[in-house]
Amino acid sequence: MTGPYRDFHASVSSVISQNRIFTDPLHTIAYGTDASFYRLVPKIVILAANASEVSLVLKEASKRNLPVVFRAAGTSLAGQAITDSILLMTSRDWKGIHVKENGTFVTMEPSVLGTSVNEKLLPYGKKIGPDPASIGSAMIGGIAANNASGMCCGTSDNSYKTLHTMQIIFHDGSELDTGCEESKKAFALSHPDLVEGVAALAKKTNENTALRDKINRKFKIKNTCGYGLNALVDFDDPYEIIQHLMIGSEGTLGFIKEITFKTVPEYKDKASALMIFKNIKDACDAIIVLKTQCRTRVENAEVDAAEIMDRAALRSVEGKDGMPPYLKDLSETATAVLVETRAVDDATLDKNIATILEKLQHIEPEIPLQFTKDVAEYTSFWKIRKGTFPAVGAVRETGTTVIIEDVAYPIESLADATLELQELFKKYGYNEAIIFGHALDGNLHFVFTQAFDTQEEIARYEAFMQEVAEQVATKYQGSLKAEHGTGRNMAPFVELEWGADAYALMKEIKALFDPNGLLNPGVILNDDPKAHLKDFKFMPATHPIVDKCIECGFCEPVCPSNVITLTPRQRIVANRHLSKLKSELDTQAYLDFKKAYQYDGIETCATCSLCSLSCPVGINTGNLTKELRSAQIGEFAQKTAGFIGSHFGATLGAMNVTLSAVKGVSSVLGENVMTGLGKGARKLTNNALPLWTASLTGGVSFKPQPQFRPDAPKVVYYSSCINRSLGNPKPQDEEASIHEITIGLLERAGYEVIIPKGVKELCCGQAFLSKGYVEEGKRKNKELEDVLRGASNNGAYPIVCDMTSCSKTARENFNGDIIMLDPIEFVLTHLKEKLTFTKIDEPVVIHAICSTRKMGLVDKFVEVANLCSTQVHVPSDVQCCGFAGDRGFNYPELNTSALRDLKANIPKGTRLAFSTNKTCEIGLSEHSGLAYRNILYLVDRCTR
Question: Of 24, 72, 782, 857, which has the most beta carbons under 10 Å away?
Fold first, then answer.
C-alpha cells in the first residue's frame, strides 16, 4: 500500500476489528468480485458492522482524498460495486428488521435480504414492493441503491414509490434521518448548501418546461439510467428530494444506513397463464391490451405481471426437467406471455381471469389460453421464466461471460423494437441471444455470451452496444437501463439518453452530495466514452465443476462460512485466480495464494452443497472442495483410510470407549472446568486437538434386540455408524437410545425388524467421501449396498435409516433398484397410516439438515412435525448448521458462525427440538441451549 492507503489503514484499524479489514491478495480478489462482467481489485476491503464504522471510513478516506465504493450483496450486474481503491462492504450481521403499524411499514438495516423481510411480513399479509429475481440474495441496501424492481412491482411498487423514510450517511461522515424533525433541523444548519441546493435545483427544473416534461415522460416506464431526476419534479420538500435521489444512486451520493418502506399486499389467491402467441407482434399486442384495458398493479389489480419470452428463450429451457412437453413443438416465431393475476379472494380471482380472457379474445393464440390456480402447475410456468437467464449461462463456452442487458421501451413501440433487437443479434453474430422481460412495463432483458480476449471481440461488442444505445435512447426514446442500474456499463451513454440539459443537472446533483467526487467515481457519470470497454473480468477455465459459474452471488446467503472466510462464489473466484497465476508461470505468487486459500477455501468449506440449490446453473462448489481435498491426500493417508475402512467395527469401538471416558471425566470435573481444559488444550496444540464442548456426547452401546415375528411384514433397519457410536447430546436420565426408539416404533407399527448382518462394520461411505477418500468411500458404500440387498430380499422389504445424510449418500451411489428411506420419508410412507398420532400442544423447533434440503424433504419434515405438535417452528436465517460431519470438532468456528442466529429465532418457552442427523444435533444443541433429538423421538412420544 502507498502512503495515503497505509495511513488510512492504520487509522481505521485502531477502531474496526482486524478480522474485518483485508489487504491480502486472496481476500481483496475474492471479496472484490461482483456479478458484473467487470473486475477491479480493491486495495483495502472493510466489512462494516455499524454506522459509526461507515462514518469513520468516510471521514478518514475524505481526509486523504481516497475513493470509497459501497457494496451490499454484490449481485449488481452493471459494474457499480467494484473498485481499485477502498471497498466498504456491509457485514451480513447488520440486518435488523422492524415491522410497524401492523405491517403497514417495515424498517430495515442495509444487509437484510429481501426474502427475509418478506418472511417477517407474511403473517401480516404484506410484502415489500421490489421483487428482483435476486431477492433471495440481494440486500436491501443494494435493492434501494439500485432501485431494483422485478417481475411484479413495475413502476408503482418499486423502492422509489414505496419509500417512507431513510437514514443516510454522507461523504463527510455526517448523518441525516428524514423521519426525525430534530435531525432535519440539525442537518439544515450543518449542511445548508445541500438542503438549499436541492431545493434550488428542483425550482430550476420545474421552471424548465421541456426538461420537466421529458422527466415525467421518461419515468412513466422503468428507468434507472442516470439519477432519479423525477425526485426534483415529484416533491417540494428538500428532504423528500434528498432521500428519493438516494434511490437508484448506486452509492455515488451517500450510504443508506436504514430505510423504511410502505408495504404492499401479498395475496394468497393467485392464478397464472402461459399464453403462447404466434409471433412477437401478437404477444406485444396482447400486452398492450393488458396494460391499457385491464387494471394493473393497483388495489384489486386484474394483471399483476406479464412476462414475455421469445422463441429462443423458450428453446433454451425446453429440454429441462419439469418443462411442459409442448414447448418443443412450438412454431419458430412462437412467443410466450406469462400472466399472473392475484386477488383478495377466490371469487375476485375468477372475475380477474374472466376479464383478462375476454379482453384478449380477438387475438388468436397458438395454443388456447387457459389459467391455472394449481400451485405446482403455475410454479412450473414461473420456473420457465426464471430459468432463461441461467440456461444461457450453462451452455456458454468456457472463458466467455454472460451479459444481460436491461432496456425499456414505450409500450406502444414494444413489438417493433423487439423485432429490431432480434435483427441486431443476427447482424453481430449473437446467435444464442434470447429476449425476455417484464413486458407490462415495456422492460426487456436480452442475454448473450461474449468473450473479451481479443480486440476483434471487444470491437464487436462495442459496435453492437452503440447500435443498441442509439435504437433504445434515440429512436424509441426508451431507457437504456430499466432496473439493473447504470453502473460502468451504461455510464458513457447517459448523456445520449438524457440530453445535455439533464446530464448537466445530474452533474450538479453529484457535486452537491459529493463535492470531491470520492463516492463510487466513474459510476453513473463518466466522461470516458470508452469506460464500458475497460476492466473486463477474466474467466479462465479452472475446473469443470465450476467453470459455468457466472459469479452472480446467489449462492452466498446459504453458505455456512459466509461471515468467517469465503463463500462459494469467492471460492470459485479464488480458484480462477490460481489458474491464472499458474498459466502465467508465476510460481511464487501461485504457491503463496494457494497456501492462503487452504484454510479459507478448503478447511472451512462445509461441503454441504446447499450452494447448488440456490445456484441458477446448479454448481456444487462443495464437490470442488472435495476434489481439492482428495488431491492433497498422500499415499500414507490413503492407506490409513483403507485400514480404518477394513477395521471399521474396531475403530468405532475404540471411539466409543474414548468418548465414554471423556464424558465420564466431564461428569466428575463439571462442564465449566472441562470447557476451560478443552480450550486450553486446543490452544496449546495450535488447534490440532478437537474442541470439547458441553454438548459432546458420550459413547453408546449398540445392541439391538428386535422381536422375532415371522408372520409380520418385514422392514430392514440400518442404523448409521454415527448413531451406533454416539449418544445424544445433553443426555437425559434413563433416556432410550435412538435404536430402541426406532425399533419400538417399527414394532408398534406391526413390523418384524431385520438388522443387517455384520452391521458394526458397515458405513454408507460419507465419512470418507467428504474428506476426499473417494476410493474407500465408494468401497464402503458398495459393501453396504450388497448387505442391504441381501437383507431386504433385493428390495422386497422397505429399508429405513435413522440419519438423512446416510440415506442421501446411499441414494446417490446405490444402483437404484433398492432405496434406503430416511426417517422423514419412512414416517410418511410406512408409519403414518399404521400409528395413531396425538398432537402435543407444545412448541417444537425443527432443523432441516442439508441432506433434507437437497432431497427436497423440507416440506415433508414440516408435515411430520405437524402430525405431532400444534406449534411447529422452523427458525429463519438458519440454513446449514456448519457442523459438517466431524468438522465442527476441528473447526468449531464454522459451526458457531452458521448458527449465530439460531438462539434468537427460537420462540421463548420452547423445550423440544428435533433434526435427523446426530452430529448436527450436537452443534445445534451447543448453540441453542436445547437438547436436539432425532425426529423419531417426537414421533415415538406422539404415537404411544
Answer: 72
* CA distance linking residue 409 with residue 477, whole number of Å: 7
b/e per residue, 549-569, with b = 16+ CB within 10 A?
A: bbbbbbbbbbbbbbebbbbbb
> Tens of pLDDT along 741-760?
999 999 999 999 999 999 99
pTM: 0.93
E-strand ranges in 55-182 read 68-71, 86-90, 97-100, 105-108, 126-127, 163-169, 175-177
CA atoms of 40 and 6, how far apart (whole Å):
19
C-alpha cell at 209: 418546461
Please give the CATH number for the structural domain made up of 269-484: 3.40.462.10
Q: Give the integer Cα–Cα distance in Å for 857 and 861.
A: 6
C-alpha cell at 235: 416533491
Measured between alpha carbons, how far is 360 from 841 in angstroms, rounded to an integer? 52
Residues 837 and 832: their CA atoms lie apart, in Å, by: 8
Burial 788-827 (b: 16+ CB within 10 A, else e): bbebbeeeebbbbbbbbbbbbbbbebbeeebebbbbbbbb
> 362-365 — which CB contacts under 8 Å span 24+ positions?
363/277, 363/282, 363/285, 363/286, 363/289, 364/278, 364/282, 365/275, 365/276, 365/277, 365/278, 365/282
Listed residue (219, 199, 60, 75) closest to 146, CA to CA: 75
In angstroms, what CA-CA distances link 279 with 2, 288, 416, 419, 438?
59, 15, 12, 10, 17
Q: What is the pLDDT of residues 458-508, one digit of tens each?
A: 999 999 999 999 999 999 999 999 999 999 999 999 999 999 999 999 999
Q: Phi and psi dihedrals of 168, rounded to 5?
A: -120, 145
Residue 660 has pLDDT above 90, yes or no: no
Identity of the amino acid at 260: T
Please say whether the beta carbons of 229 and 490 come within 8 A.
no
**Residue 26 near residue 41, CB atoms below 8 Å:** no
**Domain 1-253 coded CATH 3.30.200.20:** no
Q: Measured between alpha carbons, how far is residue 123 from residues 120, 738, 902 in Å? A: 7, 36, 20
